[in-house]
């Protein structure tokens, strides 16, 4: 696992006793650069935009650019400010510059650079000491919620805190938050008006206590530079040249700060790749990168497309994935050209169920390790952290060491530990626990216990900590269902013992092992072998990606995953969740036309062209598909946004004309079907769908199909029974199978 490009052109960083001597002179700094990288390194004047594809050596290009300017006497080290997004990337940049004989250049994150300036100029601009910097917002957000009489659990606190951070980096004040959420089509974790109130109270509490947060560091620096021209002039006198890495990830607030640092000058070099924009939920936007030529018509644009990381086979797949992309970022995609020797073709693997997929992945990993691939050079990447448990178990069973990146091990997560305590207590109480009174089998008992910890039959809307917690609890529910299916008659105590055994197996200490990581946390890293798992519709793209823009970001996320692989690449999916389950899943739409036996929905040639240097303005314009019209309440006509209300086709508060007796008959029928299928009732129909059926009382297939939640598959499977019940008849004796 490394962030350094793996090639003879990009040697591994030396150990402490192996630091090479800096290049002899400025020309020697350019040795070993390819033509496009050399063009970046020698473009030292005016605005420069470097469009750098994955694995093309962008960090090498920009560090050699700075070093060449310093060694040639064109740039003074103290006059250069290079900014990026992580302390790790900034540290790597400083280390490379020292090796190139360009020590003294400031390489920092946006926040680090702004905080340094704020600390220095605060006494002059405002007076006194800089307010205390909050290390964590959560405690103050909790207090703000309490003062607004809104109780937030730990996961809701994380989500509301993230919303406040998003609002601040997009320069949205509390009063404007609800409108900004609606305009951005953002799925807020709570009522936007409620979050806006908490946000306002949080800001008030900070002011009362003389504290600032990390977003305030940027906001206050912007404010001082706008109001105090003398201070702005001093900073501009200090820094003459700016370099911004990962420019596709800048927020509107960071761009505003950069504009103020620059003033009316244009000595700016930005580096980015719109096809790797995967953090828009934090406020990042590729618009500044895509609009660079519009803002700077005379800019030099250099495209880096020589991929030194991945084999031609991996690069071909990455290019094919983006060839089907739509939207503005896709119009500027880069066609990568591998510089490595050919390697094995990517492997596409279809499995019957998720455990089989995990076991098959573990076997292939064990074979790679036996063939000489170090475990540390192998990664398993998935969409959400809750998917890790089955791979932790499979690797532990196969005796393969592993390490998790960016998340706790499954059984170490707080919600899983809490669930384990609750299940253990219920198992000890046995029949004396009133929670279990109506639970007829082991899965029902688990669902009843976990419902007290946040599990519900329907997932919460959107992403965030609340959704992550639900996914972990849902994984335990699925595990209980699988366990009961494999061991009929098993008790809650048996399940608790099984969970303890799994936890013990997965908690073996490891030093060097296979990396398990989400796709988001894999950004910036690379491995010899990458296994992309769980690539089914609903997971990739994730089910809550609703708009065209959100779906395209999911495609880019998969592209990032593909381009992490140097040599071996595997893409897999499972047709069913559990052994013996119905094979109803479909491979991700993003693999259409790429995996064997599939056809592409229609790919377009790349418009961004090959590598090289451009001096002319581009005029390509993106296209956007139209969205469906709003869903309106059938009672009052109001626009519906809540998923449950959209299923009912009416506001929750509007009068209901539901046939209560029919609803109860449908619930009884659903419970019977769920028991036959060995699935939870909501897998047949959700409560909201049953309510909608009981309100509309459909008489034909067409009327039933128009109800949200009744798709073609469920219509074919359950339609005859539902229509019979609606007509006052007894449902058929079908077994519920296709």
Automatic annotation (TrEMBL):
Full protein name: ATP-dependent DNA helicase UvrD2
PROSITE patterns reported for this sequence: HRDC, UVRD_HELICASE_ATP_BIND, UVRD_HELICASE_CTER
Bias (Pro residues): 13-23
GO terms under cellular component: cytosol; DNA helicase complex
Required co-factors: Mg(2+)
Keywords noted in UniProt: ATP-binding, DNA damage, DNA repair, DNA-binding, Helicase, Hydrolase, Isomerase, Nucleotide-binding
Any single biological process term in GO: recombinational repair
Domain UvrD-like helicase ATP-binding: 31-311
Source species, domain of life: Bacteria
